[in-house]
Specification:
five-stranded antiparallel beta sheet; Heat Shock Protein 90; about 600 residues; alpha+beta
Length: about 600
């Protein structure tokens, strides 16, 4: 218990020296930093919102320009031809073409709900409006700089703007304070062959003001203005006077955040303002916002007082509850440490009574479960090891049966040779070769010569079985015989031809041929028969497999050959099957040409 009391004293002393004092120092330093951070955070929030507004305005300008271009140039100037036909004294014709134009306009502008109105101004002083009549007079529009610029440069889109708080653009669809874009294009004779149209103008509403709705980080007193390429104010959010005062000292300034001193209200002294400038892509416009610096940090003192009070309260609470927690943590932890030492020494019967807080009790329960599982795992591992040894012994015993079969066949062959039964001797020898190859397990490769020997033995047995019901021919390049190949590749293919290919042949003699040759670094095998052939579905099943019934073994040898070739050589090997049902089946195998001496496998019991 003295050790535990000492630990408590060390804990309190360490906490005071390593936590309380450093925290107080950091806190005093942080108070000065927090003010700057709050100011920077507020500026960043305003800057982010302004960039979002600029991005939205840029996108609106691009969309408006694209919509106008689409309206003018779509379907080889079809809308321009119809618009020109509305300039007629015939009221019926004018109504017909105007209705047709409105329908096409509604289709062309369907994806965009920001279009307020469309105007087609004619050279003879008439005009045709779409969607709704603008509230701006023809004379006021024609006097605009963007209108004159569009007249001077045909077939180019020019952008203008209106502040709805100062100019009413349309009767319906716009808010009392909103930035409306006007996009204009004057068609030349190539676009307007009638030469009646003076200008095509579309009016689009924007949602720039939506980005500055709300009060956070001083944004409730935020002044925002939009300047055109001549630094003329074209839109205001708020009064705009504060921002315009800041701009007097920021001529020709580009993107950035600037500090400015402006005359204070009442004309006495000066006030510090933060001014943010963001340029608008696609135009040389600028969006400028300003806020009084004092507004950015007006809540700092209150926040600092709250932080000091909360920190002090936390310290008092910590000291009040430290004793309780230490008494309910140290003793159970010490007991668990002792239990860990016992487990480390190999005592898996260790059990710790749960005590302390719920988390500590949960930890002790987990420790006890871990010890029980460790003990159970060791026991299971020992049992598994015993079963593994037993399985290995059974596997070793099972190897006796294949060798016993081979040795018995050797005895039969010897007796047939002594008794001069040549046919039985040859059949025994052929079967011994096939079984010996099948029982090998040390290597899956041997020479082409050995593979051909196995195949010859199999052909010999099949000819006896089918009473010489088929012919077999073999053409092998001599330089291929000592190359290495996977074992039992040719025999399953030959078996498929004999057992399945010749099954329905009645009077016609079956024919099976084998060719082996080498090209560059590739070894080729081609087996062809004149049997019943294979359908495309059967060939596909060789390469992709199928769900089989227990009695269904058709082409399973071919699937096995294909799988082993891919396993050994991957993409360097291929198996191709060409067949015509009722005529022939040709199987071609390509593998890498592997040369080298191969150690002979020694079979036990021979």
């Amino acid at each position: 218990m003295n050790k535990h009391s000492s630990l408590q004293k060390v804990y309190y002393a360490s906490f005071a020296a390593m936590v309380v004092v450093p925290v107080l120092l950091v806190f005093l330093i942080s108070l000065s930093v927090i003010r700057i951070m709050m100011q920077n955070t507020a500026v960043s929030a305003i800057e982010s919102r302004q960039k979002a507004a600029v991005s939205s305005l840029t996108e609106s300008i691009r969309d408006a320009s694209l919509q106008l271009s689409h309206f003018v140039y779509v379907n080889n100037y079809e809308l321009m031809e119809i618009a020109a036909k509305t300039d007629t004294a015939d009221s019926n014709a004018r109504y017909y073409y105007t209705t047709q134009l409105e329908q096409l306009f509604a289709v062309a502008m369907a994806p965009k709900q920001m279009v307020l109105s469309g105007m087609i101004y004619m050279k003879d002083g008439k005009d045709t409006y779409l969607k709704q009549m603008p509230a701006i007079s023809r004379e006021e529009v024609q006097a605009s700089r963007w209108y004159q610029d569009a007249l001077a440069r045909k077939n180019q889109v020019f952008v203008g703007s209106y502040d709805t708080s100062r100019t009413k653009v349309v009767a319906k669809g716009s808010q009392s304070r909103e930035l409306v874009l006007s996009v204009a294009l004057a068609p030349d004779i190539g676009v307007d062959r009638s030469e009646k149209i003076d200008m095509v103008v579309l009016f689009f509403r924007t949602n720039v003001n939506d980005f500055f709705i709300g009060k956070s980080h001083g944004q409730g007193v935020l002044d925002v203005v939009v300047l055109d390429d001549r630094d003329q104010v074209i839109f205001r959010m708020g009064s705009g006077l504060q921002t315009e005062a800041c701009l007097n000292g920021l001529k020709e300034k580009k993107n950035g955040v600037y500090k400015q001193k402006i005359p204070a209200e009442g004309g006495v002294g000066k006030t510090s303002c933060t001014c943010i400038i963001t340029e608008v892509d696609e135009t040389r416009w600028k969006m400028v916002s300003s806020v009084k610096t004092s507004e950015l940090t007006k809540d700092f003192n209150r926040v600092a007082a709250i932080v000091v009070g909360v920190t002090g309260a936390l310290f008092l609470l910590y000291f009040s509850f430290s004793r309780f927690f230490l008494q309910n943590i140290i003793q159970p932890v010490h007991t668990m440490v002792e239990g860990l030492k016992q487990v480390e020494e190999g005592d898996l019967e260790t059990h710790i009574p749960p005590a302390g807080l719920s988390e500590i009790r949960l930890m002790i329960h987990s420790f006890n479960r871990m010890v029980r599982r460790l003990k159970s795992s060791i026991q299971e591992k020992e049992t598994a090891q015993e079963k593994k040894m037993e399985a290995q012994l059974r596997a070793l015993q099972s190897q006796i049966n294949p060798h016993f079969l081979v040795n018995t066949l050797n005895s039969i062959r010897f007796m047939a040779q002594v008794s001069r039964f040549e046919g039985i001797r040859r059949m025994a020898e052929a079967l011994i070769k096939i079984l010996t190859c099948s029982f090998r397990s040390n290597s899956s490769f041997y020479t082409v010569r050995e593979e051909l020997d196995v195949l010859d033995s199999y052909i010999y047995l099949m000819k006896i079985r089918y009473s010489d019901g088929f012919d077999y021919s073999c053409a092998v390049d001599e330089d291929c015989k000592e190359l290495l190949m996977p074992r039992l590749v040719l025999q399953p293919i030959a078996e498929n031809s004999i057992v399945h290919g010749f099954v329905d042949m009645e009077e016609e003699m079956g024919s099976l041929s084998l060719k082996v040759w080498r090209e560059d670094e590739r070894l080729y095998f081609e087996i062809e028969d004149n049997g019943r052939g294979m359908t495309g579905e059967e060939i596909s099943e060789v390469f992709h497999g199928k769900e089989r019934k227990p009695e269904d073994n058709y082409s399973i040898g071919l699937e096995n050959v294909f799988s082993r070739l891919k396993l050994n050589f991957k993409e360097a090997a291929s198996l191709e099957i060409e067949s015509e049902p009722g005529c022939y089946t040709r199987t071609r195998i390509r593998i890498p040409a592997i040369s080298g001496e191969k150690e002979e496998e020694k079979e036990e019991g021979e």
